[in-house]
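== Folding task for one protein ==

=== Format: two labelled lines per protein ===

==== Paired sequence and structure tokens ====
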Amino acid sequence: MKVVIPGGSGQVGTVLARHFHASGNEVVVLSRAPRPAPWKVLVWDARSPGVWGAELDGADAVINLVGRSVNCRYTVANRRDIVESRVRSVQLLADAVARCARPPRVWLQASTATIYAHRYDAPNDERTCLLGAEPDAPDTWKFSFDVATRWEQALETADVPRTRKVAMRAAITLSPDRGGVFDVLLGLVRRRLGGRAGDGRQFVSWVHDHDFVAAVEFLIRREDITGAVNIAAPHPLPNADFMRGLREAWGAGFGLPAMRWMIEVGAWLMRTESELVLKSRRVVPGRLLEAGFAFRFPNWPEAARDLCARWRSERGA
């Protein structure tokens, strides 16, 4: 199988490329900043789509992860870049796929669980009304919802009749790789700073990297699945419980909590947004479960123990 991954040089793309390459598949990563890798890496250049567009002809799957990082302050310039990088990449891919004599059988497009409402009372699945732009939501939260909806609308309007389209509404993907979300969270725990964030009530939706990869493979195989699909473990949990589970998995008895004002100040100092920590994301994988997908790590305690063990093994700690 040939898999093309635009924007595949980040943590999630590396997890996917590493897996597909190790499984004996042909992998092509498209990146704005190519780095040496065991698989083929080409420059993603919007001005020269013909260079990388040829790789799509005859490919089995394209997994588009292109998009400027949202780990930044939502200034006017950054907001423009965040939206344009996502929508434009979808448009470029649509044009390239439409020109293929043998277009990819399936297009898996990155989306986000942030498209759903901030809520504590009930989980969100694909049938839930999105309600991500609640009237009383902070402006930055409304912006994230707008990004997600425009991203998916671009995919929906892409005219590629011979290619099946799936929007992956993914929760945070956790792997022991350096610099990833899990590495950052574990760093807090190791420094005794891994307590609850804010009041700790906000739900954390997550997915173990093994299950993320398995879900992607599942969606490639299942030719009957199109449209939006949540990729998240079936049991999201409040932030306080999530951090407690991580502390227990690591063997840390205490974690200093961070008050909301501390998070706001810290986010400002780190040039990022507090939404990434404070918004409640209670997302469940309705369509995956209905289709018969079985999670290897459906619960956080077992997932946390596995990730901690792999983190230690990879670093000799």
Remarks:
- The CA atoms of residues 211 and 295 lie 6 Å apart.
- DSSP finds eleven helices and eleven strands in the chain.
- Residues 76-98 form the longest helix (23 residues).
